[in-house]
Write a structure and sequence with these properties.
This protein is of the alpha/beta class and 334 residues long. The protein is built from 9 helices and 9 strands. A hairpin with a 2-residue loop joins strand 3 and strand 4. The protein is globular. Bound molecules: zinc ion.
């Protein structure tokens, strides 16, 4: 299985480390074999790693690694649309919406189907973003700030399209004040009482999310699966890395139907359909509920585009402190 990187202007792969001369991925079984006769068992090694205990010892086997690499260049475009803001000053600042257009292509077959269709992940997000753009373009008056609608490529290959855009944006990086990312249109599973805004706790975008949720009647719930570290796993993180505050509004866990256990439905989807051919158009999807979720995403960006002040990282926030200085706009954290 290969990996992909975007190429910089001199043709060098970004985020590639030639110092790493060999690199091996092992299955559980393969790893157990490698650790047979070692001072610690594989289980002990994992337990120590979980406890953040550094470890290093000699294995009872040696290996020679011989790497043969073949490279090819492929092209895939990001698609960017711009709506000029209505305020003569604030129109030079941009709210950037993103949704990834790629998925996995051909993948291991399930029930005779070897195409990973990506209906929810992320045809739902891109179609939702297209409708959000349509709604913005239909406003009698555009919002004060300008809005970019960016359909990014290569998310599944490591956030490549968004990372490229964040390195070489079509407008100056410091004029990008926020990112609203859609990876899976929220609401498709069931009508929801709540939504979860990944990243809202890190910046003043939390206020915009709160205002948007209030207008539409959603409660805000905390991330129910923090162990999945979703905030750093989709395109919003490419912007965070360049110091731009971001949110990704995702499905709530409180279904309006008390008989539906939302978290159970989502966890079941993740283990049975996520990144498989079963993420297709035959699965149950509630489009009315997702339309309401799209309004939520519209309103989050609209709040940011209208606000007099620019989103800022919360004081002392990890992401703001670490990456804010890269941005050079107002969102510099501490
Ligand atoms: Zn996705």
């Amino acid at each position: 299985m290969g990996e992909m990187h975007w190429l910089d202007k001199s043709g060098v792969p970004h985020d590639f480390f030639p110092e790493l001369r060999g690199n091996v991925l092992l299955s559980q079984k393969g790893a157990e074999t490698l650790f047979a006769g070692a001072p610690k068992t594989l289980d002990q090694v994992f337990a120590a790693a979980k406890a953040s205990k550094p470890q290093g010892f000699t294995l009872s086997v040696t290996a020679r690694i011989h790497t043969v690499a073949a490279q090819s260049v492929i092209q895939s475009a990001n698609i960017v649309a711009e709506l000029k803001g209505s305020d003569p000053v604030l129109r030079d600042q941009y709210v950037v919406y993103t949704a990834h257009v790629d998925h996995l292509g051909i993948c291991p077959a399930v029930e005779g189907d070897n195409v990973c269709h990506g209906a929810m992940d992320n045809a739902s997000g891109t179609s939702s973003l297209l409708e959000i753009a349509h709604a913005y373009a239909s406003l009698p008056k555009p919002p004060r700030r300008s809005v970019l609608f960016v359909f990014v490529t290569g998310e599944e290959m490591g956030l490549l399209g968004s990372d490229y855009f964040a390195h070489f944006p079509s407008v100056p990086l410091k004029s990008i004040v926020a990112n609203v990312n859609i990876d899976g249109a929220p609401g498709l599973y069931y009508p929801m009482k709540d939504v979860i805004a990944l990243g809202a706790e890190h910046s003043t975008m939390g206020d915009d999310v709160t205002a948007a949720a209030r207008q539409i009647g959603y409660e805000l719930s905390p991330d129910p699966m923090p162990e999945e570290v979703m905030f750093i796993r989709s395109d919003q993180y490419s912007f965070v890395l360049q110091g731009v505050p971001a949110v990704d509004v995702t499905d709530g866990i409180k279904a309006t139907d008390p008989k539906v256990n939302g978290l159970e439905v989502i966890k079941k989807w993740l283990t049975t359909r996520y990144h498989t051919p079963l993420d297709n158009m035959d699965q149950p999807m509630d489009f009315d509920s997702a339309a309401k979720g799209a309004v939520m995403n519209f309103l989050v960006g609209y709040e940011v585009a209208e606000h007099s002040s620019v989103p800022a990282w919360n004081k002392g926030d990890f992401f703001g402190t670490t990456f804010g200085p890269r941005h050079g706009g107002n969102a510099t954290g501490e």
